[in-house]
């Protein structure tokens, strides 16, 4: 039998009363104890001699508490509602519950049970205690025998990692650590609240055993007493001795969030993702290159910093590790730094993972190493590197680029190579052409990895930025921060997760896999290529619209190929794009999405029927003609032409703003005439039915959510007063409609 706890819940009397009822099933002690204790800890009245359930308390105990604190066999899980039914009957018998409230309580139990069963079986609700309790009970170990539990843990710890049972599904150790921490924190809060209530008189006496307040340090003694009680309850509801084992000899079997450096990096990446996308469930593109599980070990062992960290463990040499090359100490790290990184990542204990860990454990170790390096590196500013927590010189340029953001920005672009100089220019606020900023950078085959950095020549820099007017003086201002950023990239590259060749840098296959693990640990949607390819057309197009064109093209092509690659598989992608816009989608323009479809190889046979579509017709015509195909422009609806023009004119407007800002003494949006925009508008108006004023109205109807900037520019700068007045009118109408939007 399970030992009774020190909580004053009336458990023994309740179980005896329940067993004496004619025809009633015996109630197992473990789930009964958990239910009574948690009801009492949540403040249930105990005047009936037992904690009195209410519909609200039942919902919280079944939905929030038990799935994180109790491991139960199938019969024990089935017994939980029976415990609550019996409690309701006991309280009713004691005269504390009338017939109507009794019935309401039973109905509340019935309503909460389906979600409770689902939560108890949900791998996402696992804690370390519940996981190991499930394993040892599956092996026939008595969970109430601490000696048997300790012996089982010893055997488990000594077993090869690859032979251990894997966590269910795609569950990660970091998620179990976080869930364990959250469950323990909730229990600690409940115990502290119960102690506070116990300071007030209660006819049933205090709930908790008396704390050792006579101790010389009563506050510390109280905290220690509540921690001990939390351990006792947790072990009672899972397996005896687990808490002490996880706090001592077998701490490596149940790591907490505080010993997993990559969880702090995950928080930083999630913050960046929320800034970029506004929601954690907005998916990032899959990395273009990602290591398969069976490749992680070799890639990690081949990386210089992990190799140096593992080889630096006392009593170990690199040559003694399976398949290891001679030790290579990365030039960017002193011996003391390597020792600090090793300690941060759990060495020497982590050596067992290094030598024989599972792919997931090795990925987690690689993530910890990457995070430990990232948190030690300085942010890059206009003056070069600035250590964390220090301010840069006052140069009038207020910007910084920290390593965590650098990692996120690489993954956000699908892991495609970027340019050190371009990244610094973007961070510094330099104008980078829209078509250039997300373009993958060619990786030179001749440059050595991690070679001395050299800023690209002026002509090459102009191509990278998409701005032929870049001057040598502007290039010179990028030199110091670009060299500093290259140093940061090289240090991160020592982990095996990044590479740099010349000015180009990007994620390695190991880096793609490791960063995906970190992002998922932070609750960010980061599908792999197979997951993204299996999405339906609407999900695929909605996600691809927010991704860089080259990455979006690959994802769209993969989605069509996943379904067979024929015209019939491409058509739903176009239909989904049209449907989003027709439904008032306010995301990025169709121009980029259709361009991605073009790059992905959407067949002409799919584009031709789209010519008559009121949303996609003009976009389809543009792609077909660019391919040298004959296409009938007369088939394209005027509405579709206006939609495409609205997007093209917005591009011209932004280009004009960038040019104005780049001129000596210029200010972006400072009042200069938008020459590109006006020229493109007049060219379109010359071929538009009823001229420029009618075109203005057509633009406002086709793209009310995105054409405001174009209309403002036309109102302020177009020399034809009819056009300017029409733009002013449409702006007023748009403002009126927005002001009255429900």
What does this structure look like?
There is one protein chain. This protein has 742 residues and is an all-alpha fold. Helices cover 58% and strands 2% of the residues. Strand 5 and strand 6 form a beta hairpin. Helix 2 (29-41) packs across helix 4 and helix 34 (708-717) runs antiparallel to helix 35 (721-739).
Oligomeric state of this protein:
single chain
Distance between the termini: 63 Å
Radius of gyration: 32 Å
What share of residues is helical?
A: 55-70%
Region (Disordered): 199-218
Biased composition (Pro residues): 203-213
Protein name: Helicase XPB/Ssl2 N-terminal domain-containing protein
Describe the SSE topology:
Blueprint: H1 11-20, H2 29-41, H3 55-69, H4 74-93, H5 99-121, H6 128-138, H7 146-158, H8 173-198, H9 218-237, H10 242-247, H11 261-277, H12 296-302, H13 304-311, H14 335-344, H15 351-356, H16 359-374, E1 379-381, E2 384-386, E3 400-401, H17 403-412, E4 418-419, H18 420-427, H19 434-437, H20 458-465, H21 472-477, H22 479-493, E5 498-501, E6 504-507, H23 509-521, H24 529-533, H25 537-544, H26 549-562, H27 567-582, H28 590-600, H29 604-607, H30 617-626, H31 638-662, H32 675-685, H33 691-702, H34 708-717, H35 721-739
Antiparallel strand pairs: 1-2, 1-3, 4-6, 5-6
Helix pairs in contact: 2-3, 2-4, 3-5, 4-5, 8-9, 11-16, 11-17, 11-23, 13-14, 16-23, 18-22, 25-26, 25-27, 26-28, 31-32, 31-33, 32-33, 33-35, 34-35
Biased composition (Pro residues): 203-213
Organism: Streptomyces sanyensis
Protein name: Helicase XPB/Ssl2 N-terminal domain-containing protein
């Amino acid at each position: 039998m399970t030992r009774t706890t020190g909580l004053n819940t009336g458990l023994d009397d309740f179980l005896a009363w329940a067993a004496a009822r004619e025809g009633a099933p015996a109630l197992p002690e473990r789930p009964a104890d958990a239910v009574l204790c948690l009801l009492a800890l949540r403040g249930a009245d105990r005047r009936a001699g037992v904690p009195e359930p209410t519909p609200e308390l039942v919902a919280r105990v079944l939905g929030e508490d038990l799935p994180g604190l109790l491991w139960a066999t199938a019969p024990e899980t089935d017994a939980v509602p029976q415990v609550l039914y019996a409690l309701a009957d006991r309280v009713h018998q004691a005269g504390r519950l009338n017939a109507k409230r009794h019935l309401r309580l039973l109905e509340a139990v019935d309503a909460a049970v389906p979600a409770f069963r689902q939560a108890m079986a949900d791998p996402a609700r696992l804690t370390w205690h519940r996981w190991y309790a499930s394993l040892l009970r599956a092996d026939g170990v008595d969970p109430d025998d601490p000696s048997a539990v300790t012996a089982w843990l010893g055997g488990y710890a000594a077993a090869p990692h690859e032979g251990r049972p894997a966590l269910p599904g795609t569950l990660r150790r970091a998620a179990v650590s976080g869930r364990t921490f959250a469950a323990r924190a909730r229990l600690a809060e409940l115990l502290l609240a119960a102690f506070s209530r116990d300071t007030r008189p209660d006819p049933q006496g205090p709930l908790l055993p008396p704390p050792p307040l006579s101790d010389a340090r009563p506050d510390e003694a109280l905290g220690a007493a509540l921690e001990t009680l939390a351990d006792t309850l947790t072990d009672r509801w899972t397996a005896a001795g687990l808490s002490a084992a996880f706090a001592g000899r077998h701490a490596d079997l149940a790591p907490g969030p505080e010993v997993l450096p990559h969880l702090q990096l995950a928080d930083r990446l999630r913050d960046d993702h929320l800034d970029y996308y506004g929601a954690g469930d907005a998916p990032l593109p899959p990395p273009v290159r990602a290591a398969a599980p069976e490749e992680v070990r070799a890639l990690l062992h081949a990386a210089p910093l992990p190799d140096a960290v593992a080889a630096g463990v006392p009593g170990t040499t690199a040559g003694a590790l399976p398949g290891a090359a001679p030790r290579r100490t990365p030039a960017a790290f002193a011996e003391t730094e390597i020792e600090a990184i090793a300690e941060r990542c759990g060495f020497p204990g982590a050596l067992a993972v290094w030598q024989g860990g599972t792919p997931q454990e090795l990925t987690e170790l690689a993530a910890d190493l990457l995070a430990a390096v990232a948190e030690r590196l300085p942010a890059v500013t206009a003056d070069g590197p600035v250590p964390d927590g220090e301010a840069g010189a006052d140069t009038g340029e207020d910007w910084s680029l920290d390593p965590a953001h650098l990692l996120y920005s690489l993954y956000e672009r699908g892991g495609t190579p970027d340019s050190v100089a371009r990244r610094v220019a973007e961070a510094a606020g330099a104008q980078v052409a829209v078509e250039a900023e997300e373009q993958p950078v060619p990786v030179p085959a001749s440059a050595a990895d991690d070679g001395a950095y050299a800023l690209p020549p002026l002509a090459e820099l102009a191509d990278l930025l998409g701005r032929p007017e870049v001057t040598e003086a502007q290039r010179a201002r990028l030199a110091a921060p670009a060299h500093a950023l290259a140093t940061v990239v090289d240090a991160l590259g020592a982990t095996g997760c990044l590479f740099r060749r010349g000015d180009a840098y990007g994620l390695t296959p190991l880096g793609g896999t490791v960063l995906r693990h970190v992002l998922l640990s932070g609750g960010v949607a980061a599908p792999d290529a197979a997951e993204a390819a299996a999405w339906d057309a609407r999900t695929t197009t909605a996600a691809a619209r927010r991704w860089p064109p080259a990455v979006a093209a690959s994802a769209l092509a993969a989605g069509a190929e996943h379904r067979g690659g024929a015209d019939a598989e491409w058509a739903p992608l176009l239909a989904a794009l049209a449907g989003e816009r027709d439904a008032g989608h306010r995301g990025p323009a169709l121009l980029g999405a259709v361009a991605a479809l073009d790059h992905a190889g959407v067949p002409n046979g799919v584009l031709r029927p789209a010519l008559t579509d009121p949303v996609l017709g003009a976009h389809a015509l543009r792609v077909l003609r660019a391919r040298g195909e004959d296409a009938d422009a007369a088939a394209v609806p005027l509405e579709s032409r206006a939609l495409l023009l609205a997007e093209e004119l917005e591009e011209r407007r932004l280009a004009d703003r960038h040019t104005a800002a780049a001129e000596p003494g210029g200010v972006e949006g400072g009042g200069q005439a938008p020459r590109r925009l006006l020229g493109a508008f007049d060219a379109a108006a010359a071929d538009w039915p009823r001229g420029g004023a009618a075109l203005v109205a057509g633009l406002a109807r086709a793209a009310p959510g995105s054409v405001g900037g174009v209309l403002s520019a036309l109102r302020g700068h177009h020399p034809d007063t009819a056009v300017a007045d029409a733009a002013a009118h449409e702006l007023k109408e748009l403002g009126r409609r927005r002001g009255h939007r429900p």
